[in-house]
Specification:
single chain; mainly alpha; about 0% strand
Length: about 190
Amino acid sequence: IVLVLFVTPLMAWPILHFGNGYVEPSLLEGLGLFCVVPTTLSSGVTMVTQAKGNVSLAVLLTTVTNLLGVLIMPWSVSQIFAASVPINPMAMLFELIWLTLVPLLFGMGLREASASAKQFGKTNKKVLGLGQNSCILLVVWLMTSGAQSKIVTTSSHDLSICLFLAAVIHLVYRVVGYLVATGAQL
């Protein structure tokens, strides 16, 4: 939890300052934002499932970090991006609560209040999961498509540096995660 919510967001700071003047700032800001946002449930659990890891622990940690992230992220983002992007932490907190916690609580309440909704979720678990993953992929595709003109006009130098930094970020996450898990004997 500390790694996801506090340590990895700190990786955004050197990324934002590493390429200052050498790489397109919006690319660095995107990588910085990636560092600040907690792991999504679909990617965190999917990777652990594929690695035949402890799925229950992955679900628990991902859920806790996302719920806490709703409260912590507005302040971490406002501090890390303070120099380049004006951010109102209270407005972001309200939006995150409205867009994440309210639907979550509504769904949980509906499932508990309605036996038919609970049965529908159980019966269609696989289809609902595929639908959720498809929606995530669709969002990525839409965002990438919307930025196509920017992507094709960005220099190969800038894209290469960002790909290298993304690989380094993932390598650091993997190594630190492995060391922590090994140390904790998970």
